[in-house]
Each structure stands twice: as structure tokens, then as C-alpha cells.
């Protein structure tokens, strides 16, 4: 019985490794349906271990009048002592 549990964990190893990836569903389905072939299991493992491409973040400068609240992040009016969003002191 223990051997069967170890074999099931080994079979689903690519799905376990790739569970936090954006393509986790695709990795799981490939592992489930084609994992019985050695090539399908290896492809799923490589896909799960491959690094994800991070989306590029473009910073757009915006002129802000006032200050940002350190608690909720909303913009306050110039000279305000309290945040209009959450009410904490700015």
C-alpha cells in the first residue's frame, strides 16, 4: 500500500511542483492524461520546472496633489491631517 502511494506521488510530481504557476491547470492535465507515457511525464516536469516570464511593469509618472495615506494608499487633500479614505492621521 505504501508503494502505491509513493508511485502516485511520483506520477503526479510535475503537477505538485507546478501547482503555484500560472499554467498549473495545463501542467496537471498534461500530467494526468499523458503522464503514463515517459515523454509526457518529462514534458510536464520540464514545464513545471521552467521559470515563468515576469510581466514587464511600466511606471507612468503622475502628478499628484496631496499625499498618499500610508495605511490605505488613497490620495489626501493638500494640507489634510486625516485620510479621507480610512480616517487615520497622515
Indicate the topology.
Blueprint: H1 2-11, H2 13-17, H3 24-34, H4 38-49
What does this structure look like?
The chain is built from 4 helices and no strands. It is an all-alpha fold. The protein has 2 domains: 2-49, no CATH class; 59-90, no CATH class.
Structure summarized in a few sentences:
With 90 residues, this protein is mainly alpha-helical. It has 2 domains: 2-49, no CATH class; 59-90, no CATH class. It contains 4 helices and no strands.
Task: List key phrases describing it.
90 residues; mainly alpha; 0% strand; elongated
Order of helices and strands: HHHH
Percent helix range: 40-55%
- The structural class is mainly alpha
Rg calc: 24 Å
> What's the tally of helices?
4
Instruction: Assess the beta-strand content as a share of residues.
Output: under 5%
Amino acid at each position: 500500500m505504501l508503494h502505491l502511494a509513493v508511485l502516485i506521488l511520483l506520477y503526479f510530481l510535475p503537477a505538485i511542483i507546478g501547482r503555484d504557476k500560472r499554467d498549473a491547470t495545463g501542467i496537471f492535465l498534461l500530467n494526468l492524461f499523458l503522464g503514463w507515457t515517459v515523454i509526457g511525464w518529462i514534458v510536464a516536469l520540464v514545464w513545471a520546472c521552467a521559470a515563468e516570464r515576469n510581466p514587464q511593469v511600466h511606471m507612468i509618472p503622475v502628478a499628484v496633489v496631496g499625499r498618499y495615506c500610508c495605511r490605505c494608499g488613497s490620495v489626501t487633500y493638500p494640507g489634510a491631517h486625516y485620510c479621507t479614505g480610512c480616517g487615520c492621521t497622515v
